[in-house]
Amino acid sequence: MNEIFGFDLPDKSKELTDKEYVDLVNRIRGNFLSYVSVLDTTLTMIISDLFLRDKNDFSLWVKTVFDEDRTASFGTKIVWLARIMKNHSVFKNEINESDRIKIQQKLNEIREIRNDFAHNFAHNKKINKENVKNRIIQLYDFEDGITTSKNFRMDEIMSLINNPWIVTELEKIQILTKKIREKQ
Fold first, then answer.
1. Nearest-CA neighbor of 46 among 93, 88, 102, 4?
2. What is the domain partition of the chain in residue ranges?
3. Do the Cβ atoms of 149 and 140 come closer than 8 Å?
4. At what angle are helices 74-87 and 97-119 packed, to 10 degrees?
5. Separation of CA 59 from chain center
6. Which one of 78, 93, 100, 105 has the fewest CB atoms closer than 10 angstroms to its CB?
7. Contact partners, residue 157, CB within 8 Å, separation at least 6
8. Stated pTM of the model
9. What is the DSSP letter of 14?
């Protein structure tokens, strides 16, 4: 999956035009949000596979577990997965506590960046040359009449996308969930 969303950043020695920089920022943001969407779907599959025995359970699932929009947020799914791993005996036996904590922490780190990328904007008219040179994404947020900015290093965002660890861990959890379901 990471190969779909990951790509090599232009070398820092390459000077980018404002347009190239804006395009790069938008590509990174778009790829990161797409990457998170796949993680979100994977969490949904894990959770629903564990609790739904057959397709007839789905309507009850929707009416009792999901909110009125029939979706749970990425953050809610992270909490649910953490609780499942902590409280389900098979998960507790198969995934050690430090890995369970690390999975939750990594997903929460990704969630926080996802929220910033999805709910804040980049200033595309007046480009900060230092941000271009240093490959920094600067996002702005308006809340309660105050503008705040956050900076993200492009290489750190791409490292998150390119690191297969969380994807591999979720795949293992998905396989474990199917094994649990098959035994019931």
1. 88
2. 15-183
3. yes
4. 180
5. 27
6. 93
7. 28, 32, 113, 137
8. 0.89
9. S
- Yes or no: say if 161 and 31 are a contact pair by the CB < 8 Å rule: yes
- In the prediction, which pLDDT does 173 show? 97
Tokens of 150: 């956050």
Q: Phi and psi at residue 138, in whole multiples of 5°? A: -110, 120
Determine the Cα–Cα distance for residues 23 and 44; give it in Å rounded to an integer: 31
What secondary structure letter does DSSP report for 58?
H
Between the alpha carbon of residue 64 and those of residues 54, 95, 167, 173, the distances in Å are 16, 28, 28, 24
Residues contacting 119, CB < 8 A, separation 6+: 141
The answer to whether residues 157 and 32 touch, using CB atoms and an 8 Å cutoff, is: yes
d(CA 1, CA 110): 16
Instruction: List, for residues 35-81, the tens digit of each pLDDT value.
Output: 999 999 999 889 888 877 676 776 666 666 665 665 678 999 999 99
Measured CA to CA, the distance from residue 30 to residue 163 in angstroms comes to 17
- Comparing 11-20, 40-49, 147-156, the range with the smallest average pLDDT is 40-49
Write out pLDDT tens, residues 92-124.
Answer: 999 999 999 999 999 999 999 999 999 998 877
